[in-house]
Write a structure and sequence with these properties.
5 strands, alpha+beta, 5-stranded antiparallel β-sheet, disordered C terminus
Amino acid sequence: MRKGSSKRVSNLYRFIRLILGEKITDTAISRRWNMDTKNFSEFKNMRYPVPRIERLVDLAKLLGINDHLVFEVAKGVPAERIYHLIRKFHLENKQRMNAREIVQMQQFLRESKQRYRKLFSNASDAILVADIKTGEIIDCNRKAEQLLGRTKREIIGMHHSKLHPPKQRQYYENRFQRRVMGGKEFDFIPVRVLRKDGQIIPAFTTTNVIELDGRPVIMGIFRDVSRLKTIMSGRPKPTASPVTS
C-alpha cells in the first residue's frame, strides 16, 4: 500500500477509536461493521486499502455520525480535528448533517486556527505548549526561540523540565504535575530558564490547562525580566557562566 494511503487508513482507525472508545474490542468493531475479522486486522495494521464509499457509509452508521464526516477523515483530515468538531458542536445528538453545515464547520475551524496561530506567533512573551501526558513540548512561538536560544526544531520534543537548571528540574516537574491535577497556580511565578548556551534567565511565568485540537495541554507564558533586573540594580548585566549539575 502506498504511504499516503496507509496514513489515511491509520487516521481512520484512530477516528473509530476516538468515537467508540478504547474499551471496545476490535472483534466487536469488525462484527458491527460487518467486516471479516481478518480483513479488519489487515485494516488496523494498514495492509488494507482505504474502504470504498459504501463501506464508509456503513461505518458512519456504526459510529452514529454523518457519512460526510467519515469521508473527510478517510481523505486525510486529522481524526482529532473532526472529533473535536463533533464534541464542540454536539453533533453526536443529531441524526444528519447537511453539506452546508460541514462547510461552515470547516470554515470556522480554519478561521479559529488562523486567529490562534497569528496571536500565538506574534505574542510579546515566550509561549510554550506541553503535552499533559508526556510533558514534552509540542509547540512554541518565536519569542520562546529567542528566550531559550534554540530553534523551534530543537525545542519541540524537549521535556518541559529541561527548560530549567538541572538541580531545579524535579521542583518544576512536581509543580507541572500539580497543575495537571488541577492544583492552584498563581499568575507570574518567578522561575529560572536555562538557555542553550548555559545562561540562566530570570523570568515570570503563568500556566493554563487548555484544549488544543481536541486534547488537553498546558500552555506556559514566560516573560523575560533580565533587563528589568539589570535596570533596577543599576549595574551592567553580568555574563552568566554555564550551568553545571
